[in-house]
Write a structure and sequence with these properties.
ten-stranded mixed beta sheet; globular; 2 domains; about 45% helix; alpha/beta; D-Maltodextrin-Binding Protein, domain 2
Length: about 325
């Protein structure tokens, strides 16, 4: 009897010990947290949609004390984001570097402008989406989307467009408008700038005729009467200060082009590190400051955690590759 009881005790002890051995690595991993400054990397200049998003992320992280360490925003500007992507790639396995991303991480690879794709990094979250607009100087003779298309039909070289990257979503909108006008998008005059601030300066100064950009970049200038938005690539008219701006679909152009924002980390994160960042970004998007900022800048909340974000990017890559192939821009 005693032997039986002893065996039961030994078996129970062995079972508990085995359970502890299995649980201990996971428990240790679950305790991961940043040990040094978290760097939020932005590939475009100050004043851009990405820069605004990066600084908002950093603000919430700090004010909500979500990190336990300091954080900073670093602009690694150049080549439409490639400089920032190369910088992040140098920090493989380090979860204390974050990159603010947009569709350009996909389109630059599709067009051959960059060797880097989303698969070279670790998707952490999809955060929000904002529709893209074409805008002109308030004194421009181009009053509407239809005016623009008529001008392109008469002389495609008479209009200079500008955005912040060749073949990105902003460029795709320009190409879709040109295609609807019946002209060859490859013959358009398109100037490339580093961010929303430079784009706005260029159109206000009369250096370019039309800019393609996120609405948040130009909203203050629209409200000040300095810029005119001739069309938004949304499914329906937006509210507030944009309520009077027509969609491109209203003007006969089948163009719905969102400019989403997300966050990536270097390649090689552990499951525990991913889980930690999932928890942090779930808190970021629930903060009142974040929600208020989205509403103020006409952004749609579209949070996806790391696993769903990776799946979304796979789908987006395929869709954008099809669109760019149709436009003759895919390599």
């Amino acid at each position: 009897m005693r032997n039986t009881e002893t065996m039961r005790c030994l078996t129970l002890a062995a079972t508990l010990a085995a359970a502890l051995l299995v649980a201990t690595p996971g428990a240790a991993q679950a305790q991961w947290k940043p040990e040094k400054n978290v760097e939020v990397v932005v590939g475009l200049a100050a004043g851009s949609f990405q820069d605004h998003t990066g600084r908002m992320i950093q603000k919430v992280l700090q004010e909500q004390r979500l990190l336990g360490v300091t954080s900073s925003v670093v602009n690694r500007v150049g080549a439409g984001g490639v400089v920032a992507w190369a910088y992040l790639a140098q920090h493989a396995g380090d979860p204390q570097y974050l990159l603010v991303t947009s569709p350009s991480i996909l389109t630059a690879h599709i067009t051959g402008a960059s060797q880097y794709s989303y698969t070279d990094f670790t998707p952490l979250a999809m955060l929000s989406s904002q529709y893209i607009a074409l805008a002109v100087n308030a004194s421009s003779p181009i009053k509407s989307g239809r005016d623009l298309m008529e001008r392109l039909k008469k002389d495609i070289t008479s209009v200079t467009f500008a955005n912040n990257g060749l073949g990105n979503n902003l460029h795709i909108l320009i190409a879709l408008v040109a295609k609807s006008a019946g002209v060859d998008a490859k013959k358009l005059k398109v100037a490339i700038f580093q961010g929303g601030g430079e784009l706005t300066t260029a159109v206000l100064g009369g250096h370019v005729d039309v800019i393609s950009t996120a609405t948040s970049n130009i909203l203050p200038h629209l409200q000040a009467g300095k810029l005119r938005i001739i069309g938004i690539a949304s499914t329906r008219r937006l509210g507030g200060a944009l309520a009077t701006v027509p969609t491109w679909k209203e003007q006969g152009v089948d163009a719905v082009v969102p400019n989403w924002s997300g966050v990536m980390a270097p390649k090689g994160l552990t499951p525990a590190q991913l889980a930690w960042w999932d928890d942090v970004f779930a808190k970021v998007v629930k903060s009142e400051d974040w929600k208020t900022d989205l509403e103020r800048n006409f952004q749609e909340p579209e949070y996806l955690a790391s696993a769903d974000a990776a799946a979304y990017l796979r789908t987006q890559y395929a869709q954008l590759k099809a669109a760019l192939s149709d436009l003759g821009l895919a390599k």
